[in-house]
Write a structure and sequence with these properties.
heterodimer, A: about 325 residues, mainly alpha, ABC transporter involved in vitamin B12 uptake, BtuC, about 75% helix, about 5% strand, B: about 350 residues, two-stranded antiparallel ribbon, cell membrane (chain A), Sugar ABC transporter permease YjfF (chain A)
Chain lengths: ~325, ~350
């Protein structure tokens, strides 16, 4: 088999192994109900992690995603409850604002030649601050559209519910896999992550691609905000605190190389599911406290980083 | 790996090169910025510069700025050294939570305060050493290596406190957070001492030069016979130590260890302070006193926003504006504009 698929395979095997272990202890976890909740509860994280995958593939990092999610939820709540827009119109405005925000960050990263983490750090402050300037308090959203969405789902065999937001996440992953592996934009991202200089020499439009990557990441964070808003029916400036870390962890656990240029969007999906599995296991177990989630995710992160180092040090040099 | 190590003691003391006239200090952009922020605060609140002597210690808004700014200033001291080696330490906030949790838990279980403080500092050193090992031995990018502890650290702190907020009334720990020495608040004195010690260590020995060498080009430094790995280990361990000290101060201040909120997002404030202080993010050029000044500027802005009646969250907007201004000023683009035609080989810095 293709040796470049090995890390992806390793991640998938570890997920399967962990899931089987969990099922061994709590047979109740092997049901479509649990799987349905997996998808629903991690939908916003998954969508944000897709954007993060593209950014990391290009050799950068985006610390602003959690703040953009929080900002989007507040903006949507304000537009629906105070301005009186229809939710769909509010979503469109929020996505446009988020994409523009990301494009500005991408432009700053490219033209000012500063490390991406500093620019997106400023973006994080700006988005959180902007959200709390809009409204420091949590705004509840009451709209027929929200109730309709939360009531609609597809019943899976076994009683599991595939909710709308779960389907949105699956659709985002499917589109992102196509975008990464079947389009010119996708190849440009991989080229940038491999080496910016070589990419530029090969004729990759570096400026346009960088701006598009960060616009995409922020737009997906905006979409995650939409999903979060549907999920909680509220807008709050401190929503999704620290989600950027979970998203980075999911990307790394999914086998994407942090130096850029190598990785799979599908791996990120497994990374998100693995984090969901840890959380669900802790809920099922009942005796473990929630802080174990952080520790286990930290340990997983460490394991996968070390694994990557070993694999890429031992293997032949990629060109 | 056996590589020749460099003797850290300079053989002959060179004449101290940084003796500048006093007016050069006041024309530094950071000093001008601080004075401007303080003046704005004074216009908003006329009593801003009033300092009174009460119960054997100084009181006043200015003292308060120094006192509140001390934890970030201490973090910034360690962070400066890390950033000077072209790295970054994202875990300092989590290490603060760990150190506070260790000290509070030990003290409330009856261990004497000095032992608890030593254990907390030891925990910080261990955390820093862990980061250093990831960066040097496993050769992981610093931002990712320290991310591991940033994610897991708060979980570890909660493990130590068993999920609750551990409160204490131990006089020694409370003194570290809220006491006073010679009229000055203890955190300010600790920050000052640490700053002076660190500045002397890097400027009066070759240590600073070695850090700059590693920051400019790690491979070149290694080829020049420098044990870059050992140096990085020291730098990250020192950053962990600074974070532990800051964690003790914050825990002593609120008389308790809050594993969830102690030091939350302070790593970002510390990085911002270092950047304001003029340390280059690309490594190689750094100043510890200027980073401390940067921390004081940040705190003066915080205080100003509180005085002027804006919500504290408005701070974040101001901070991001400050970062953007600094980035634009530091970028090669504006350097080219200022330099005009003379800047021939700028640009492609990456």
């Amino acid at each position: 088999m293709n040796r470049s698929l090995r890390p992806l395979l390793a991640t998938a095997l570890i997920f399967l192994f962990a899931y089987l272990m969990a099922v061994g202890q709590h047979p109740g976890m092997l049901s479509t109900r649990v799987v349905g909740n997996f998808l629903t509860d991690n939908a916003f994280l998954g969508i944000a992690a897709v954007g993060m995958t593209f950014v990391i593939l290009s050799g950068g990092i985006d610390l602003s995603v959690g703040a953009v999610i929080g900002f989007t939820t507040v903006l949507i709540a304000v537009l629906i409850m105070w301005v009186g827009l229809h939710p769909l119109a509010a979503f469109a405005v929020a996505l446009a604002v988020a994409a523009l925000f990301g494009a500005v960050m991408g432009a700053a990263i490219h033209y000012l030649r500063v490390p991406s983490f500093i620019v997106t750090l400023a973006g994080m402050f700006l988005a959180r601050g902007g959200a709390s300037v809009l409204s420091p308090d949590s705004i509840g959203i009451e709209h027929d559209f929200y109730t309709a969405v939360s009531r609609s789902y597809i019943l899976m065999p076994g009683g599991g519910r595939l909710t709308v937001i779960g389907m949105i996440m699956l659709a985002v992953f499917a589109l992102a896999i196509l975008l990464a592996h079947r389009t010119r934009f996708g190849s440009n991202i991989y080229a940038l992550g491999g080496s910016e200089t070589s990419a530029a020499l090969m004729g990759v439009p570096v400026a346009r691609t960088t701006i598009a990557i960060y616009a995409l990441s922020s737009a997906l964070a905006g979409l995650a905000g939409v999903v979060f808003s549907l999920y909680t029916s509220a807008g709050y400036s401190l929503n999704a605190l620290g989600v950027e870390l979970d998203a980075i962890a999911a990307v790394v656990i999914g086998g994407t190389l942090l130096t850029g240029g190598y990785g799979f969007v599908a791996g990120t999906f497994i990374g998100v599911m693995l984090q969901g599995l840890v959380q669900t296991y802790i809920v099922f177990d009942g005796t473990l406290s929630s802080w174990w989630t952080k520790i286990v995710v930290g340990v997983l992160l460490f394991m996968f980083i070390v694994l990557q180092r070993l694999v890429f040090r031992a293997g032949p040099r990629r060109t | 790996m056996t590589r020749p190590t460099i003797d850290l003691r300079p053989t002959t003391q060179p004449p101290y090169p940084r003796a500048r006239p006093i007016h050069a200090f006041f024309t530094r952009p950071q000093v001008i910025a601080l004075i401007a922020v303080l003046l704005v605060n004074w216009m908003l609140f006329p009593g801003f510069f009033t300092i009174t002597w009460q119960d054997g210690r100084l009181f006043g808004s200015l003292i308060d700025v120094l006192n509140r700014g001390a934890p970030v200033a201490i973090l910034a001291i360690g962070m400066t050294a890390v950033i000077a080696t072209k790295g970054v330490d994202l875990s300092v906030g989590a290490v603060m939570a760990i150190s506070g949790a260790v000290a509070a838990t030990l003290v409330s279980s009856g261990v004497s305060a000095p032992v608890a403080v030593a254990a907390a500092l030891g925990a910080g050193l261990l955390c820093g050493l862990w980061n250093g090992i990831l960066v040097t031995v496993l050769d992981i990018q610093p931002i990712i290596a320290t991310l591991v502890l940033m994610v897991a650290g708060r979980g570890l702190a909660q493990l130590v406190t068993e999920g609750s907020i551990v409160t204490f009334s131990d006089p020694v720990l409370v003194f570290i957070g809220t006491g006073s020495i010679l009229g000055l608040p203890t955190p300010v004195v600790i920050a000052l001492l640490l700053m002076i010690a660190a500045t002397l260590a890097v400027r009066r020995t070759a240590l600073g030069l070695l850090i700059e060498a590693v920051g400019v080009n790690r491979s070149a430094a290694r080829f020049a016979g420098l044990s870059a790995g050992a140096l990085l280990l020291i730098v990250y361990t020192f950053a962990g130590f600074c974070a532990a000290v800051a964690g003790l101060i914050v825990a002593g201040d609120i008389r308790g260890a809050d594993a969830n909120n102690a030091g939350l997002w302070l790593e970002l404030d510390a990085i911002l302070a270092v950047v304001i202080g003029g340390t280059s993010l690309l490594g190689g050029r750094f100043s510890i006193p200027m980073a401390v000044l940067g921390a004081i500027i940040i705190q003066a802005m915080n205080t100003g926003i509180l005085i002027s009646g804006f919500s504290p969250e408005f701070n974040l907007v101001v901070k991001s504006a400050v970062i953007i201004v600094i980035l634009v000023l530091q970028s090669p683009l504006s350097a080219r504009m200022f330099r005009g035609r003379s800047g021939g080989n700028s640009g492609k810095a990456k």
